[in-house]
Amino acid sequence: MKLLTHNEIVDQLKDKNFNTLFIEPLLADDQIGSVSIDIRLGYDFLVSILTRKPAIDPCPVDDERKRGIQSYFQETRRQIGDRFVLYPNQVVLSTSLEYISLPDNIYAEITTRSSYSRLGVSVTTTLQPGWRGSIPLELFNHGNSPVEMVVGSRICQVRLFQIDSKVEYVTAKSSRKYFGAVRPTVSRADKDQELERLTRISKCL
Question: What is the model's pLDDT at position 173?
């Protein structure tokens, strides 16, 4: 495994072959640092809201009265330069302004930029080799004060790691729940097969 440096990232982006790194739009040259790429906050947000339901139930249930996970989030959109307020202990789903396509031998780790970590904002995720789409950003405010997030600002950074072997991220036998998404997507935990199996087992006990 190897961490890509500035020149290697630039070379990957210049190579227009099918199985190479693609990130658009990169709005400024200084988005590419020594060993990372700064990523900007996108337009769309899914904001977690309180409901009269005591808890989110991710298990699949054939019951029309059950609330879907989507109903615990409210959708909103902002324009470049607009403010979005992230309140303490609030989960907000968003995406990067950039669209990214990873080769089948490179995976990405996304972390909060230090400037926003110091405000209490947390963003952490991993993208598998072969991933395509806008980067999903699960925003959380660990601090005591609301934070104004500016759409288009560089809030997180991507580090790219090259591995020795190639990975088939998308195959005929595997379905990817968030692959290719360009807008924030709620949890699809209710699609996990083990939850369905566990639900059946519990009914038999």
Answer: 52
**Bridge partners of residue 101, in order along the sequence:** 22, 132
The residue from 138, 168, 194, 196 that is catalytic is 138
Contact 69, 98 (CB under 8 A): no
Residue-level pLDDT at 55: 78
pTM score, whole prediction: 0.84
Q: What percent of the chain has pLDDT over 90?
A: 63
Please give the span between the terminal C-alpha atoms of the chain, in angstroms, as a whole number: 46
- The phi and psi torsions of 72 (rounded to 5 degrees) equal -90, 5
What are the Cα distances from residue 89, in Å, to 1, 54, 125, 142, 146? Answer: 36, 17, 18, 6, 9
Domains of the chain by range and CATH? Answer: 2-51+63-204 (2.70.40.10)
Respond yes or no: is residue 138 known to be catalytic.
yes
- Give pLDDT tens digits for 141-197: 999 999 999 999 999 999 999 999 888 766 645 567 777 788 998 887 777 777 667
